[in-house]
Amino acid sequence: MATSKIQKIKRKSLLYKSGVEYADYCLNHVEGCSHGCKFPCYAMMMKRRCGVIKDYEDWIKPKIVENALELLDAEIPKLKNKIEVVHLCFSTDPFMYGQKEVKEMTLKIIEKLNANGIKCTVLTKGIYPKELAYTKYSSENEYGITLVSLDNKFRKEFEPGTAPYSRRVEALKYLHDKGLKTWASMEPYPTPNLVPQNLNEILEKIRFVDKIVFGKLNYNVKISEFQDNKEFYQRCADEVVEFCEKNGIEHHIKFGTQKKDNLKTRKIFVKKEEPVQLSLYKLREAIA
User: Fold this and answer.
1) Second label for 40, Cα 20 to 30 Å away, from 91, 92, 129, 222?
2) How confident is the model at residue 285 (pLDDT cuts 50, 70, 90)?
3) 287: alpha, beta or left? (left if phi > 0; alpha if psi -120 to 50)
């Protein structure tokens, strides 16, 4: 995939306390995402609602935060004792497929955080670079991919700018084989009227990971059109839990996916006992 030229922007802050149930601190060093996911993308919806972007076409032209490293130099000393882990990213993709500048900035950010004793959790629909196995990056980092299907026709329709599923898994397996911690996000998982598929086949592809997070698809009318969608997601959640327990994989089912949320498993990445709530005001700050 060809690399496109990325515009530059500046921000006044970078690190923020996340409102996502399993996260601690987070940063988003890119505005927008060329993956152009059409589930729809919640981050894009909120950016548009808050007036940060105009439309989908604006969203898929990412802009990199050119002063990200300088912001970290200023913010890390103030927050270092509060941070348990920093997640990359919730409103963009740190290893955006085909975006060399994003990859390079992400590697510098991870290196800087690790050099200050801060662990990172990372999630991508792109391809992990092999240099993450180098010793200058912390062995405590946890690298994840989003994997909700193996059907490339579905990927091209709903995740048009992302890396092929097989290449995501291959890159993640490389890091696993190098002794690094890996995980998978199976969210947003589609209902059968969007793509008929075998959940166990997808789980088997990521049997090697240390952790799995599973969650339902939201904000799509097709979900409500699927009869007994609540029962469907409960069955899926049960299957994921059974698979993980059988294979010694830590797991978390995102809140709202099953009939009764499991509050204990939300500490899958963060061990602190702290309730997390996300208001629209805090979300507006996070994506500004």
Assistant:
1) 129
2) very low
3) alpha
Higher pLDDT, 273 or 136: 136
pLDDT digit string (tens) for 199-246?
A: 999 999 999 999 999 999 998 888 889 989 999 999 999 999 999 999
What are 35's two structure tokens?
Answer: 């993956």
Q: Which two tokens stand for residue 10?
A: 């500046």
Domains of the chain with CATH codes? 7-287 (3.80.30.30)
Cis before 120? omega within 30: no
CA distance 56 to 237: 31
> In Å, what is the CA distance from 261 to each residue of 64, 215, 257, 264?
36, 11, 8, 9
pTM of this prediction? 0.90
CA-CA distance, 183 to 145, in Å (whole number)?
A: 7
Only one residue has tokens 């994997």, namely: 147
Question: How far, in Å, CA of 227 to CA of 27, rounded?
Answer: 38
* Amino acid letter for position 198: N
Mean pLDDT score, 252-273:
87
Q: How far apart are CA 159 and CA 152, in angstroms?
A: 9
